[in-house]
Design brief:
Distance between the termini: 28 Å
Number of helices: 5
Shape: globular
Number of strands: 8
Structural class: alpha+beta
Strand content: 25-35%
Strand order of the largest sheet: 1-2-3-4-5-6-8-7
Largest sheet: 8 strands, mixed
Amino acid sequence: MRVSLQEPFSAYTIRKLGINERVKSFDCGDADLNDFILRESDLYREALLAVTYVFEAIDDTEHEHIAAYFSLANDRVSITDFPNKTEFNRFRKRRFVNEKRLKSYPAAKLCRLAVSQELKGQHIGEFMIRAIKSFFLADNKTGCRFLTVDAYAAAIPFYLKQKFVPLTVEDEGADTRLLYFDLNDIAD
């Protein structure tokens, strides 16, 4: 599935990496994120654990210049994510009517998001987040209410700017923090 994009990204496309397709080169400045796209993304796809999408120039028929990528997996927002049942009840009371009170709610996890070093500062990350949100609003095949991300501490301000919020206060100050975005907030 290729996605046609609007300006200023109309010269780019987002596409799912093919089965057994390997990215030859990518550098976002983070060794773990580079390693995933170069060596692990196909293994995650083969094991049905995550699917990776690349953002590349339309005319890059050889797929040699990946501008950015993101990886998605299934997730849930569950009572076990909260320090106690009271906190979970506060969370769901704000988001759901009484008859939709479950012990967990469907989510998609943004496992990884990276932009090539040479293209940083061009708001590609913000664009990618909007595209991911639209994936689930335009064609939500199984029901997905939330997007989640375990954000590195350095990336938390970026995700907060994209309207993700911390799920709890329990992981405040940690190396990573669980954030979520309620897709229902877009429909408002």
